[in-house]
Specification:
Chain lengths: 441, 214
């Protein structure tokens, strides 16, 4: 099964997740200046010590392969360190260069508990993003240490060369010491000083290049992420269509069919009584009449959950009235509050409608609730539709694979198919809040 | 009463015709879609037009659009809309300016023959009949509830029955109260909805409108 993709990366419209197109290199306004130089020197100083620590852990881990536990432990520590490093590097790069480098998508494990933890570690170390980030860190540190060291050496030379030349010039000729003449030494010192300053000023721009090269999402990774997101959505669509067919079949079988059978039987019975027992026949016909009307109501309820025409011709707002009223009629007084300034794409409206209809059906069947509330609100800034269904019932609802338990699995699939997120909060004491956030564009 | 029917299912059209003819009405025309309805209505000048909502060619809201057109062109011509599903939004659209001579019912209601024939009478005589489902759909809309918060639960029930086109005595029977106390409730509703006694418009209609649009 495909892993759930990084939700934030999909839904957050902020600039951080909209990677710059690869063919338009972003400007680097602060590649030269005090801050980049300070950052590079800090990198060089920190790198000289820090460089060895994760590397040592990795080496220890690999060398202790015969002891599985040692290897795993070192591996886990290394991954955690590198996750932190990745974060720190991105924050640093943004603070220093401000190039708006996008955060590459990260696949998230769909499991729960320990399995999630382990699977997430695996997803991380098998991702290009992780190793690019590691490579970036080491390349940058190596470069910083090298450049800072070189600059330091040049500075030391610039101070020592004239001193040495003067000292040697004044020393005893018999000592056999020789150095360049003093003026040349001054010249060399000036050149070394200029070189050190130039290095400190201009070298950080290569830092910026390294950042842009290794921290930004590659076009391939972008595509891979989109493919896995689409595969995930497609899987959700296929499964939810399947689940829905089963549900319709089951609902018709459980509700309408028995009514019609009973209706036919009652009329058959009435027919046999017509000539002999008119009062009984009348009673039976009255019963059959009731059966027929109940069958109509149940058929309407089944069909209601699928795709009402009002949804396409008047929109979500108008369509929700009857769904919510049906829950009220089934014994759970429900209120509806809608904030929708305009119509939404068809698939978003259909998905939101399905979520409300299915959640309310669940509530009337399983929750034992005395009240429910439906809220539908369009967040115009983020262009997301928030659908929330609250009930004060017994709680303890969660997404299970058991087809007969609740329809929450189906809802989850349907919402994922619409590239949205679906959450259920349902402590065993109640209340239950089901919420879906659907992207509208 | 002379009646025109637009209903695409031949089976249902025949059934409704049979019920109406049985009750002594005259069905002057029965058509499977709404395209010729306007012409038929201006031609036959019926006392009532009965329309299905979903009809050819698109099977969405043809009946609603035809009813709106009919009511805008012949305001005095009563319309009874039947549908497998009722939607408060359709009702609000059709009722926006005038509740007179308008009915909107679930098709299921036809199965209760006497009640259906009552509704036909009420609408044909210029009254209003709304399916109870429409009314309760309106009630779930939280922003619409607020404006009616001043009403007691009993007054809510009375107003709901008014919206369904019931007379004072029918409301009294339905709620097991005397006609006098039903009238008292109605008067109280008028007061709470700020419908002054000197309104020239029918206060009953205005109360129902307020109820639907609040």
């Amino acid at each position: 099964m495909a892993a759930v993709t990084d939700i934030d990366a999909v839904t957050d419209p902020g600039p951080a997740v909209a990677p710059e197109p690869a063919d338009v290199p972003p400007p680097h306004p602060r590649a030269i200046g005090l801050v980049p130089s300070a950052s590079m020197i800090t990198g060089g100083a920190v790198g000289a010590v820090w460089f060895w620590i994760p590397l040592a852990i990795l080496v220890i881990g690999i060398s202790s392969i015969p002891s599985i536990i040692g290897f795993l432990l070192a591996g886990v520590v290394f991954i955690y360190l590198m996750r932190g490093v990745d974060h720190v590097e991105r924050v640093r790069s943004e603070a220093v260069f401000g190039m708006g480098i996008g955060i590459p998508p990260r696949r998230l494990s769909p499991h729960t508990g320990f399995q999630r933890w382990a699977h997430q570690l695996w997803l991380d170390i098998s991702s290009v993003r992780f190793w690019k980030s590691v490579a970036h860190h080491y390349l940058r540190l190596t470069y910083d240490v090298f450049v800072t060291g070189l600059a330091l050496a040049l500075l030391v030379f610039a101070f020592l060369a004239p001193a040495a030349a003067i000292a040697i010039g004044h020393s005893d000729a018999d000592a056999g010491l020789s150095f360049v003449p003093t003026p040349v030494a001054w010249l060399l010192a000036a050149v070394a000083l200029a070189a050190a300053v130039a290095l400190l000023v201009f070298a950080p721009s290569l830092d910026a290049t390294i950042d842009r090269w290794l921290l930004s999402p590659s076009p391939t990774a972008e595509l891979q992420f989109q493919v896995s997101a689409l595969a995930d959505a497609r899987q959700g669509a296929v499964t939810s269509a399947q689940t829905e067919r089963h549900r319709i079949e089951r609902d018709l079988h459980d509700s309408v069919q028995p009514r019609l059978v009973s209706l036919a039987m009652t009329i058959g019975l009435a027919q046999t009584k017509l000539d002999t027992d008119l009062p009984t026949a009348k009673t039976l016909i009255a019963e059959a009449h009731d059966d027929a009307k109940s069958a109509l109501v149940e058929l309407r309820n089944v069909v209601r959950g699928i795709a009402p025409t009002i949804l396409s011709d008047r929109g979500l707002d108008a369509a929700l009235s009857s769904v919510v009223q049906r829950a009220t009629n089934s014994g759970v007084p429900t209120t509806l509050s809608v904030h929708l300034p305009h119509r939404l794409p068809d698939e978003v409206e259909a998905c939101a409608y399905f979520v409300v209809a299915e959640a309310l059906t669940n509530i009337t069947r399983h929750a034992g609730a005395s009240n429910a509330a439906v809220t539908v609100r369009l967040d115009e800034a983020a262009n997301q539709l928030h659908v929330t269904v609250f009930d004060d019932g017994r709680g303890g609802a969660w997404i299970t694979d058991d087809e007969n338990a609740t329809g929450l699995r189906g809802l989850d699939e349907r919402v994922r198919a619409a590239r949205g997120t679906f959450t259920v909060t349902s402590p065993v004491t109640g209340p239950t809040v089901i919420s879906a956030v659907l992207p509208c564009g | 009463m002379r009646i025109v029917i637009a209903e695409d299912s031949a089976l249902l059209r025949a059934g409704i015709e049979r019920i109406l003819i049985d009750a002594g009405h005259e069905v002057v025309a029965g058509v499977p879609d709404a395209t010729n309805l306007l012409r038929l209505v201006s031609e036959h000048r019926p006392d009532l037009a009965i329309l299905d909502v979903r009809m050819p060619p698109t099977f969405t809201d043809e009946g609603i659009r035809a009813a709106a057109l009919l009511r805008s062109q012949n305001p005095e011509s009563p319309v009874l809309v039947l549908s497998h599903y009722v939607e408060e939004r359709y009702a609000s659209e059709l009722i926006a300016s005038d509740t007179r001579g308008f009915g909107y019912l679930l098709k299921d209601r036809v199965a209760d023959v006497p009640a259906f024939l009552d509704a036909v009478q009420v609408v044909g005589a210029g009254g209003t009949v709304l399916d109870p489902e429409v009314v309760s759909q309106i009630l779930v809309r939280s922003h619409r509830r607020n404006t009616l918060d001043a009403l007691t639960p009993r007054e809510h029930e009375v107003l709901q029955l008014m919206a369904e086109g019931k007379t004072n005595s029918a409301i009294a029977v339905a709620l097991h109260m005397s006609v006098g106390s039903a009238e008292k409730h109605i008067a109280s509703i008028f007061t709470k909805l700020n419908l002054a006694p000197d309104e020239t418009e029918n206060r009953r209609v205005l109360a129902v409108l307020r109820y639907l649009e609040s």
